[in-house]
Structures are given as C-alpha cells and as structure tokens.
Amino acid sequence: MTVGENEILLGEGLEKIAPDALTEKVKTVRLFARTTPDQKLLIVNALKKNGEIVAMMGDGVNDAPALHQADIGIVVGEATDVAKESADLVLLDSNFSTIVKAIEEGRSMFENIRKIILYLMS
C-alpha cells in the first residue's frame, strides 16, 4: 500500500483544521500520525459523521475514549486494563496480519451462520 504525501495528516496539521473542515478532510486522508488522544477522538467522530465504519487500534489509557467511540476498538494483549475494557477485540500479539485474519474468520463465521438460518427457515 502506497500512501501519497497529501493522504497523510500529522497531529500538528490537525490542530489547524476546523472541526467542520475535518469531516471533509478525513475523506481523503489514509494515514493519521503523531496524534494526541483528543485528536484521535475527533478523527473517529469525523469518520463516523461521514457514515464510515471505524476501527481504532490503541494500547493505553489515553486511547480509551477513541476506542470506546469507534465501532470496533482493537487493543493488543500488552495494553492497559482500561484500554482492554474499552475495546471490542483484544489481540494476543501486535501483528497487523492478526487483524486481517480475525476479520476473515469473522466474515466466514457470519456467512456460515447466515446459511444455517436460511436452511432452518426453508
């Protein structure tokens, strides 16, 4: 995955954007970096305002509000207890491929449950 320079937004650049403008800006940004806990929450809320399904990954107490607000909060096993309580999914390792595997497994389970329900109703 390549990310262009105009698709990156750093926390210091985020400070200069008004909340209404942020709702538009998040439509084109693919990578947020060096953000504060308050900025993370603003980003999650802006994405949700645009109708996006938001997954947020964090590991500390400061991430808890954004983890809770996101549709899917993801933490790693080494995360703080507060972050784990705010999350929907706790990963046992810090590998991003684990997230992909978890999503694939979840989709497979969902499809199998859907098939069973259709079979039982027919």
How does this structure look, described?
By secondary structure, the protein is α/β, with parallel strands linked by helices. It has a single domain, classed as HAD superfamily/HAD-like (Rossmann fold, 3-Layer(aba) Sandwich), CATH 3.40.50. It is globular, with a radius of gyration of 17 Å. It starts with 7 loop residues before the first strand and ends with a helix. The mean pLDDT is 90.
Could you describe the largest sheet, including whether it forms a barrel? 3 strands, parallel
The number of helical segments is 6
Range of helix content? 40-55%
CATH superfamily: HAD superfamily/HAD-like
Low-confidence stretches: none
Structural class: alpha/beta
Q: What is the CATH-assigned architecture? A: 3-Layer(aba) Sandwich
Strand content: 5-15%
SSE topology:
Elements: E1 8-10, H1 11-14, H2 19-25, E2 31-33, H3 37-49, E3 55-58, H4 64-69, E4 72-76, H5 81-86, E5 89-91, H6 96-121
Parallel strand pairs: 1-2, 3-4, 4-5
